[in-house]
Amino acid sequence: MTMNYGHLTTAAAKWEEMAGEFKKVEGSYRDSVQKITMGPHWIGDSAIAAHTNFAATRYEYQAAQTQAKATGSLLRDAHTQFIALRKNLTAARDAAIAAGMNVSEQGTVTVDHTKLTEGERNALRHEPGYVQSLTQPWTDRIHDIVRAVTDHDQGVKLALEAVTLDSIGDPNDDTLGTGFNGHAKGDIELYEAENAANIATRLNAGEKISPAELAELQRVFRDNATNKEFSQSFLSTLGPSNVIKFSNQMSNFSHSGKAGTREAYRDLGKGLATTLATATHVPNFTYEDSKGNSKPYKYGTEGYEKSFAAWSRTSDAKFYNEWREGLKKAGTERYDLDAAGNKVPKNVSKYGHDQQVNGYQSLVTLMQEGSGYSPQFLGDIADDMIDAEKKDKNIWKLYGRFEGKDDGWFANDPVDGILGLMSKNPEAATGYLDSAADGGNGRLEHLLKDRDWDTVKTTQWMGNSEITSSHHLFEKDVRAGLGQALEAATRGTESGAPGERFGRHSEAEARIMHETINLIDYGDAQGTKGNNSQPGRGDALLKSDEYANLRDPLARALASYAPDTVEIITGEGAARKAGHETELSDGTESKIQNSRGSILRIMRGLSDVPAGSEESRNFDLLYQAQQGYMTEQLSTEDYSDEAALRIRARRVGEVYGALTSLGGDLALISGDDVTSNASDIRFYGYHAGGVIIGAIPFFGDAAQRTLDIGLNEWQSAVSAEQGMLARGRLSDLNDSAEDALENYFEKWGNANNIDKSTLADAIGEAGQSYTKGRAAAYSALVQP
Description:
Layout: H1 6-32, H2 45-98, E1 101-103, E2 109-111, H3 118-126, H4 130-162, H5 188-204, H6 211-224, H7 228-238, H8 240-256, H9 259-279, E3 286-288, E4 294-296, H10 302-312, H11 318-330, E5 334-335, H12 338-341, H13 346-349, E6 357-358, H14 359-367, H15 375-391, H16 404-407, H17 414-422, H18 426-433, H19 443-450, E7 460-462, E8 465-467, H20 480-491, H21 507-522, H22 538-543, H23 548-559, H24 562-570, H25 596-606, H26 617-636, H27 642-664, H28 672-675, H29 701-707, H30 711-721, H31 724-727, H32 735-751, H33 756-781
Helix pairs in contact: 1-2, 2-4, 4-5, 4-6, 5-6, 5-7, 5-8, 6-9, 7-9, 8-9, 8-14, 14-17, 15-17, 15-18, 17-20, 18-20, 19-21, 20-21, 20-23, 21-25, 23-26, 24-25, 24-26, 25-33, 26-27, 26-29, 27-30, 27-33, 29-32, 30-32, 32-33
């Protein structure tokens, strides 16, 4: 904190002054000494020797200038970064003090008891871990900055030592590595990248690196992974193929290496992934809106595509373009990886056959260790991998399974892996899967309909003859990344994010959801209006094991479309119940316009009860999302007009009937063990076991009060419906469901002071429409 870093700039000025002095000496030497060998009067062997020696001497004067300038630049670079780090440290200390902490000169953080509230003092006395919960975040923050100072100091030391090393091989350089450095660099990060690449190259070659070198790799990635110059220099020095080899080496050591170094190699993997994200970063492209405000173009839009195309032709894009081209070659080449080699069956390995992995598989495995990738880079890599698999349908196939806690870390299906990465960046997922992006593309249709998702190799060997099998095996995590990407793309949030308030969606989000439903149900993005339409089978498709990983993310996504699905089920939307071939595009108020049958079949498929389970959380989620939205309408709209209330009640009853009937088609648990324990638990936001449903959208207190009905009442209604669709007993009454519907309206009426006669009319309308909704579900789910 008290260090005088001004000495660095003083020293830098002296080195720059020295470069000027060397330039003067070089000029004098050129004019008074070297000039002698250039005239016509001195000839013969001695003249030739003198010419060579004098040229070498002049070269050293030139190299000395370069080295002196570079040394000055390194010192100024060091000064700039030390000052920035000290500012960060000062800011962290001041923030800690402002938050009620004391910070010692050694960086120790303690609680300032004079600033504690009475509640905090009480917690301090009774909660053992309370003090640490207050101080630890500040301690960690200060420690990280102090470590960054130490890391930078080590980088400066490395650069100042490296700048003095003579480069060999230049014309007129006759000192064989003992003279001045004619290729001296004035950037600390470039020397760090060079040294790190040297260690990585030796590791790739099978050399054992020392603990000090391993620690240096950790330090350099920790200090520089977010630095563009370092990242691009390091990756360029190694090249795509060697980066993949380096990544595989880290995978080997972090998963099957010595226990004492596994964590260190995991850290290296994260550092390398961050380095890749930094090096391939594509800048944000902006435009001015009508008010003169700067707005970013979203990935996939026409404005973005034009801006990216223009940027691609600039020098700033040189690394990105060359790296992507290099990956196209390295990504389809084969590499050794212990995790893959160990999975070769004995009846295959006995014939001397091994297996290697593709570069893209290793690349995506590495990328999964990091974050912050540009949407453009994710999309480009995904496109390049799909192009590669179209040329070779077996390109990703490997013996063995790469799934679950122990083996799922390896991205044997790199396309699914990159889609999983997109799910952490909604802009990337939406821009990539939107069929209107890039001037129109078929990515969504290819992924949902045409792509072969089988990555398990089943061929056998008889000596040197490979016997191909037609048997398909799908891993347990098949399509997991696709499901997550679809959720992010259609919700506009990260996959798995908590629910937000009910609302509409962007045009791209609604378009992707609309086409996803149609492709799954009808096999055509335009539904029944498409040229390749087939009978609706979305429920059967989503019930199958190979589509199981689409259920949870799509259910969370579809729950956010409750305003749309309610309109579709009741037919009050612009496309009525038959649907329209496209979404209704209206800016941020866009809607899906699928057919009612499709919506109900998709809901049924998403709600399928997982193997070994006794309940469907997805059904709970979808059911409550629809009920929640309808209740919010009842609780916030003006129903002084009795006719308007009857219309709304009719729609509530119809949706309730359809969804209750849909739930009755599920093999849900229906015993007293659930209902007897659920009477005091709120309906909305919980599944039948009493656990909170996090993805459900939320709304105001008025609607919540109406929905505060016991779970046992709702569960009884659904349980009473079970088996009716399967047995074709649609004419059977469901007294429990009708009682629950009446109770729902009575609670709403009491809360909103609705007179009994008006309420009775509303209940009657809802009851009649309930039967209509049941019939709609029967028609959608029971195929002729």
